[in-house]
Amino acid sequence: MSEFTLPRGIVISGTGLWEPDGQISNEELVDAYNRHVDLFNERHAQEIEAGTVAAKPKSSAEFIEKASGIKNRFVITREGILDPERMRPVLPERPDDELSVQAEMALNAAREAMAAANKTAADIDMVICACSSHQRSYPAIAIEVQSALGIDGFGFDMQVACSSATFALQRAVDAIAGGSARTVLLVHPELASPQVDFTDRDSHFIFGDIAIASIVERRETCTTDTAWEVLDARAKTVFSNNIRSNFGFTSNAADVDPFGPGKTFRQNGRKVFKEVCPMAAAHLEQQAAAVGAAPTDIRRWWLHQANINMNGLIAKKLMGNDFAPERAPVVLDRYANTGCAGSVIAFHQNNRDLAVGDKGVICSFGAGYSIGSLALEKVAI
Ligand code: CO8
């Protein structure tokens, strides 16, 4: 566990969320998947009969909601995803002199976060673009965002799957504490749909596209009425193959289809559930203790949004069986799993009602395995 004593006075002063226009309900997704299955089974009827090909099983909206809590997801485009002959989005390549898709998503959220924090480009000197996957290696998406906003300073991309945002928030705090940045813009354009295998029953329902952003700065430069001071930050990684993707540029030299069977997202969801829940609960208990609080004193747990049953289990461990649902808000019913954005969306949509002096924790857990968390306190400026 990485623990460090934080200098006080560094705050999250604004956040912004951007939702794509397209949405897909479980029912629509399952209907398209099941039509795809009918086509597949029809086309492979002879092999299925001969036992050389397995018939594809159908999906169900009831299963998805019960097993995950997901009811809906936002997507960058609906086109193609629901076509049983295609089963992937249609996202045409853009010319180099046009804004890239992820930079555009990031900018939409960034502008809202900057407005919420009363910041202009002149106030910001560092941009981090942290998400599960970036659409290219270089130039960094963060530098494209920096340029589009007219920020003088520096930017970089980073990835730690679902913990990209919490780990990036910690890097922002480090940079401000260490003096290498004054005010940091963090953007998390999670573009999952192009890498989801919509023909895979086990995972076709899991992810959604979204962008969230935040501003981190010193309390002295903050001009909002209230902000969230970072009290404690911790990160933990433990290697696991239970959530994995294998697509990447080396496929070109390995003569394999980078997006062929098994190359995109895959997981052993049951194992992840069993192994990550106790790790996350223990991590959060330690964090509460580090800020001198019992877990029940933490007013809000903005948990990673992968599975509602997982969050229920962790919340019960922290607050007891009869915890009030608003203490650990759920956003995955509307957004599905949005990678690293989920816990920050939960924070963005569920912090305004809290009072000065209240404490809350943003926490991510996922591939890696990785767990990242920040304990916050609402402060008057
Ligand atoms: N419809 C109907 N039935 C289904 C379906 C379906 N769609 N899928 C599975 N079933 C069936 C199974 O075949 C199984 O049947 P049987 O009992 O006959 O074998 C039965 O339902 C139960 O299946 P599971 O055991 O798989 O079901 P679970 O109850 O475990 O639920 C979940 C599956 C929802 C996946 C659950 O295990 C889960 O959510 N686990 C947590 C996983 C998690 O948190 N993962 C984090 C992943 S995200 C992450 O780390 C970031 C990665 C980076 C993002 C990149 C973007 C792409």
From TrEMBL:
Pfam families: ACP_syn_III, ACP_syn_III_C
Keyword Transmembrane helix: no
Keywords for this protein: Acyltransferase, Transferase
Beta-ketoacyl-[acyl-carrier-protein] synthase III C-terminal domain segment(s): 291-377
Alphabetical list of InterPro entries matching this protein: ACP_syn_III_C, ACP_syn_III_N, Thiolase-like
Beta-ketoacyl-[acyl-carrier-protein] synthase III N-terminal domain location: 156-221
UniProt protein name: Beta-ketoacyl-ACP synthase III
Organism: Biformimicrobium ophioploci
